[in-house]
Each structure stands twice: as structure tokens, then as C-alpha cells.
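User: Could you check the structure of this?
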Amino acid sequence: MSRDTQLKERWEQLVNILSNQFSQGEDLDLDAIIYLIGVQELGKVHSEYKKDEKLNLMHIAICRLLEPYGFYEFEFFDEEGWPHYKVKEELPPLKAGEQSVLMKEAIVNYFLERELIS
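Assistant: Sure, the predicted C-alpha cells are below.
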């Protein structure tokens, strides 16, 4: 099975699992999944967030997802428990489709580590 085919199958499996758990079956998009990962990483799953906090949650998720690729490095948790990352290497310029594939791959790897999918 090609790498692209495997990624596509794992992505569809993941979207199906998360959509059934968090959106009554309506497919979650990439941004929604990134947001969920941010909430997971913060560890405050039953909180309500303001718009700017939601953006910060997505930033946390992106940093965490791209950390294994060498782009970010975890630094510390602040007094409110929010994780902070530093940039290790700038992301190369990517076209929209390339960004999407990179994020989907990173998300699939994140959930493979957590054994939600196989």
C-alpha cells in the first residue's frame, strides 16, 4: 500500500472516530481536529473558551503536532497551565495542499502514538 493511500485511509478512519464522538456524526474538518488536539494538550476539556483562547489552542496543537518534525520545541507550562513552545526551525514555504497533507500526516501520527487508530 502506498504511503499516500495509507495516510488517506488512516485520516478517514480518524475523522470518522472523532466525528462520531464530538459532532454527532457530521464530519469534522481539519481546523476542528486541530482545535480538539489543542484542548487535549491543554488538558482542560470541560472549559469554555473565548475566541482568542481558541486560536491559542490551535497554536498549541500546531506546535505539538510539528514538534516531531523539528519545527518547534516545548519550553514550559505557564502559571495557568498553558504550554509554550519555541520555534526551532522555520517552516518552509508550502502550498495550501502541501500544508494540508503535512498537518494530516502529523495528526495521524499524533493519534497513532495514542493508539486511537492503527
